[in-house]
Amino acid sequence: MTGQTDARLAELGIDLPEAPMPAANYVPFVRTGNQLYVSGQLPMGAKGPEFIGRLGGGLSIAEGQKAARLCALALIAQAKAAVGDLDSITRVVKLTGFVNSTPDFTDQPKVINGASDLMAEVFQDRGRHARAAVGVAALPFGVAVEVEAVFEVE
């Protein structure tokens, strides 16, 4: 039986990627009580990291938003791997987005909207969340964006 969230993904034409394996000595998620913490996810495509570069240094806000959306897809895939049924997610609590950006770039919130918008599209009211959008000097593999999440689960 397909849950409401899976049906919503299908309605939006979204196929979740496989939940990525950790690249170092950490786990992809930790569940404690009714909280699910998902480790930072990178914009990974079928052939590896995508959207390499810095915002304000060659990458556009639109490209950064696409990178953030890929990160959010990976977050949802990790959440599904953790809980099985996405309908058991009662709330997207918080996203923290890291944007590889030049010192003078100040539109990190616009970039992380790519992840926030996807959470709202998929989870609707349950997808409204608290958030931080932070500019950083570098990210793994030189990617433009990394996003981590906290979910509330049944």
Describe the structure in your own words.
The chain has helices at 4-11, 61-83, 108-123, and strands at 29-32, 35-41, 44-45, 48-49, 89-100, 130-136, 145-153. It is an alpha+beta fold and 154 residues long. The model has no long low-confidence stretch (mean pLDDT 96). The protein has a 5-stranded mixed beta sheet. Strands 3-4 form a two-stranded antiparallel ribbon. Helix 3 links the parallel strand 5 (89-100) and strand 6. Helix 2 packs across helix 3 (108-123). It has one domain (4-153): RutC-like (60s Ribosomal Protein L30, Chain: A, 2-Layer Sandwich). Helices cover 31% and strands 28% of the residues. The chain contains 3 helices and 7 strands; from the N terminus they run αββββαβαββ.
- Give helix and strand order, one letter per element, not per position: HEEEEHEHEE
Trace the largest sheet across and list its strands: 1-2-7-5-6
The CATH superfamily turns out to be RutC-like
* Discrete helix count: 3
Structural class: alpha+beta
Distance between the termini: 19 Å
Q: Roughly what is the average pLDDT, rounded to an integer? A: 96
Uncertain stretches: none
Which CATH top level class fits? Alpha Beta
Total count of strands: 7
Q: How large, in whole angstroms, is the Cα Rg?
A: 15 Å
CATH architecture: 2-Layer Sandwich
The share of residues in extended strands comes to 25-35%
What fold name stands as the CATH topology?
A: 60s Ribosomal Protein L30, Chain: A
Q: Main beta sheet: strand number and arrangement?
A: 5 strands, mixed
Give the fraction of residues assigned to helices. Answer: 25-40%
Shape by Cα distribution = globular
Number of domains: 1
